[in-house]
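Exercise 7b. Backbone tokens:
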């Protein structure tokens, strides 16, 4: 069933510590993005409660057998967890959709299966990597032993609550760590069910904990805690920089940061199907209403095909229907909050003042209750325009034309961000040249967006982040390595 009644969805306003729900005094209201209605109150974990959660995780790490049990057994427990998630769509689906920007049909069709399969992927790495024997002279034995850090602090964003939490939690648990997760205060509740299912699967109490709250109080206390050995975060570049600074001051302790993006999509005149490519480009900026770190927010197109391509784009944009996440007919998600929608519109208006021409959209939809932003196409921009420079995090696409491959690369370069890029061309040699020259962490060719190939890591260049999520790299980033040298002569 693709729809539900949001009034019937019960949420648990609590933390999850040591395998138990912990109620707390309400600290802030939580609103549904789809209609702007307050539907719950959220407790905010202060430094004392964060200390309790981290201490509980540390005790579970030291006293349970999670880190020391045979890796294959740890993997079996995680696979049980994945099976429980797969079977929990009736609960997890509405819980994820009601308070987020994720349409219910997408949660059931993509998010939940994606999370479950990702957990299975990391579970299978549990016994695939344990260090290595080093090349030494024959009367010595040199080894590197891989060991878990202990307690990992995971701070997840609001745009894909379950998926992004799983990126942080699954590799950390597979490597034998304990985790304290802070979900976004805007989308806090599905993570509680996520942790509850982990406990049901057999992950020991205290190994996976959830603390609710904002970044200023709860997130900061997590980063500063002396028992937190590493922090992993997905979110804005500004917040990531602040986290990195805090971890340097109180540690230093390692961080994995997946941050902002301003990703270009380069379209060449030789694409075999203009309409299909235009749909790919449109989906890359309107999926989740553009609230995706890798959104393809800059269209850089060969001038000779610009006019017909724009016509296809406008047709797709105009066909999208905004509506609540529980509506099966809606095809454009809400913006997470009225505040964020106002920010998006502010950048668009500044872009217009700087010379941008609005070809489609350019404002909010009226009368829908929640905040919905019109899919917007801005032409007449240069690389100094606010819409090109700044991460908008909404369904706003800028348009720039080129006449040569060299000019396309110049337009694609960005001073701040280097998260992802798309290349659309029938020329394989050109695609391979551009892959080498684009200064980004991920390049998609004749497609845009991730698949469920978890083996491919994701992460950015420049101020788009440090380290990798997904892939073997994400698993190894949750391990530290001890060198051992033994005389055997």
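Sequence design result:
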């Amino acid at each position: 069933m693709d729809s539900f009644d949001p009034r019937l969805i019960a949420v648990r306003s609590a933390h999850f510590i040591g395998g138990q729900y912990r109620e707390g005094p309400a600290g802030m209201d939580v609103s549904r993005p789809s209609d702007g209605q307050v539907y719950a109150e959220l407790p905010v974990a202060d430094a004392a409660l964060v200390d309790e959660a981290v201490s509980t995780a540390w005790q579970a790490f030291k006293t349970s057998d999670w880190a020391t049990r045979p890796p294959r057994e740890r993997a079996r427990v995680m696979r049980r967890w994945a099976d429980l998630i797969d079977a929990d769509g009736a609960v997890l689906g509405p819980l994820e959709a009601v308070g987020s920007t994720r349409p219910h049909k997408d949660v059931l069709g993509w998010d939940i299966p994606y999370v479950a399969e990702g957990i299975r992927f990391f579970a299978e790495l549990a016994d695939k990597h344990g260090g290595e024997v080093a090349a030494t002279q024959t009367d010595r034995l040199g080894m590197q032993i891989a060991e878990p850090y202990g307690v990992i602090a995971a701070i997840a964003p609001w745009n894909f609550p379950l998926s992004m939490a799983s990126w942080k939690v699954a590799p950390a648990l597979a490597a034998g760590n304990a985790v304290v997760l802070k979900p976004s205060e805007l989308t806090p509740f599905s993570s509680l069910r996520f942790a509850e299912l982990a406990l049901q699967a057999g992950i020991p109490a205290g190994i996976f904990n959830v603390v609710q709250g904002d970044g200023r109080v709860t997130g900061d206390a997590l980063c500063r805690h002396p028992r937190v050995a590493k922090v992993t975060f997905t979110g804005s570049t500004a917040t990531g920089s602040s986290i990195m600074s805090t971890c340097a001051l109180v540690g230093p302790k390692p961080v994995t940061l997946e941050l902002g993006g301003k990703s270009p999509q380069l379209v060449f005149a030789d694409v075999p199907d203009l309409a299909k490519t235009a749909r790919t480009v449109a989906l890359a900026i309107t999926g989740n209403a553009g609230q995706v770190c890798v959104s393809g927010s800059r269209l850089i197109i060969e001038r000779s095909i610009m006019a017909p391509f724009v016509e296809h784009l406008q047709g797709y944009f105009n066909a999208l229907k905004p509506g609540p996440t529980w509506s099966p007919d809606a095809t454009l998600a809400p913006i997470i909050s009225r505040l964020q929608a106002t920010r998006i519109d502010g950048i668009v208006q500044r872009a217009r003042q700087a010379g941008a021409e609005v070809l489609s959209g350019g404002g909010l939809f009226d009368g829908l209750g929640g905040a919905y932003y019109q899919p917007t196409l801005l032409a007449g921009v240069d690389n100094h325009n606010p819409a090109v420079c700044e991460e908008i995090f909404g369904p706003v696409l800028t348009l720039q034309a080129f006449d040569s491959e060299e000019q396309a690369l110049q337009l694609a370069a960005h001073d701040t961000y280097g998260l992802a890029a798309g290349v659309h061309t029938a020329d394989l040699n050109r695609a391979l040249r551009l892959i080498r020259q684009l200064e980004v962490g991920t390049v998609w060719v004749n497609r845009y967006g991730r698949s469920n190939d978890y083996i491919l890591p994701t992460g950015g260049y420049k101020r788009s982040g440090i380290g990798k999520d997904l892939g073997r790299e994400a698993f190894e980033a949750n391990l530290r390595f001890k060198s051992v040298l033994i005389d055997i002569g």
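Instructor comment: The two ends are 69 Å apart (CA to CA). DSSP finds 15 helices and 22 strands in the chain.
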